[in-house]
Design brief:
36% helix; 12% strand; alpha+beta; 4-stranded antiparallel beta sheet
Length: 233
Amino acid sequence: MPATDTATLPVTDALHKRRSVRAFTDRPVDPALLTEIFAAAQRAPSGGNLQPWQAIVLAGSDWQAVKDAVAARIAMGREGHQPEYDIYPKGLTEPWETRRFGVGEGLYAALGIPREDKKARLGQFMNNYTGFGAPVMLFLHCSRIMGPPQWSDMGMWLQSVMLLLVEHGLASCPQECWAMYGATIRETLALGDDQILFTGLAIGYADEDAAVNQWPVPRVGIDEVVDFRGFAS
């Protein structure tokens, strides 16, 4: 879709359509369209208007350079890990552990990979580090002086970007897994040590026929997360 096209999609529809896509086509993405999307996302809320988010958007050889650098670290096994932060809390308890386990099992079931097939499961996990074939990768980072409120701001900016991508017929997959190799990515992108890598965001056009993009991702009911108080009966 050219950047000059006007896209209209109700926010509710965009929310329902958005999903973490794990198989992309090789169709290139118009950088002018991405510029339009990022400009619109600048309206995301930000405490004190700090706007702490910083993004690097890669395609072509620059994107390949990151994949190659991280692949070399992955080959080192656990010794190659360079975590920027704990992606999940240590000692994760219920109900969150069940939700995390369940979504993983649902994904592998959609691909027909049984639990005992460790090799196939590892192969699917390693697809994370190709961006699932996405032609564009966004790396989101911020200054290390920023705290939890500013990380919340980054999340709101990222959600704005993802919904705008849906509006324009694109798809995405937020990937915190890249933070496992933060130092290597920062070095490859010439980011200083004063920056911390938050997440990657794979961007492209979804392979609509891929089973991994079709299985229903569960969400809990609002009765589990929203508590209404003080409203008249």
